[in-house]
Design brief:
Blueprint lengths: L3 E8 L5 E3 L2 H4 L6 E6 L5 E4 L1 H14 L5 H11 L3 E4 L5 E3 L2 H6 L5 E8 L1 E6 H10 L1 H9 L7
Antiparallel strand pairs: 1-7, 2-6, 3-4, 3-5, 4-8, 7-8
Length: 147
């Protein structure tokens, strides 16, 4: 699989479908993505292979007897749903997940190597503005990386 990277802006239609960029779609081999709630009020989309890796690791390390683990299982694993591309290259985002991420009309898709984030454009812009100082600190913490 190629790296899923890039920032794309597309519109969510009245039926909750979003046209998926052909650049990202060409890297999805099974015509299916797994979509679930994410952190920071967005959605995460994974290929089935990447979702299996992540969800297996979480399930192996989580105990249903631990309250924090149950919270993660309920918020990340339970809402995950497979979605297929239609013939036009659109994904139909389930209503419950659209509501969680407050997806309205204008959306941002971010390819982040092994997964994709789907944001409402206004919420993403606000997130960028509010996290600027934290981003600079986080980037400086990576100062040991040389390229």
């Amino acid at each position: 699989m190629n790296l899923l990277t890039g920032e794309y802006r597309n519109t969510l239609d009245e039926k909750g479908r979003i046209l998926f960029p052909s650049r990202l779609r060409s890297d999805v081999h099974d015509n299916v993505l797994i979509v679930t709630q994410a952190l920071d009020h967005c959605l995460w989309l994974f290929t089935p292979e990447e979702w299996e890796k992540l969800s297996s690791k979480i399930m192996e390390s989580a105990s249903p007897f631990n309250p924090q683990n149950r919270l993660v299982l309920r918020r990340l694993i339970a809402p995950a749903q497979p979605v297929e591309f239609d013939k036009s290259g659109r994904l139909s985002i389930p209503q419950s997940l659209r509501m969680y991420a407050s997806l309205d009309k204008e959306c941002v898709l971010l390819g982040i190597n092994k997964y994709i984030e789907l944001w409402d454009a206004a919420i993403y812009q606000k997130y960028l503005e509010e996290s600027e100082s934290s981003y600079l600190e986080a980037a400086e913490a990576l100062s040991t990386i040389n390229f």
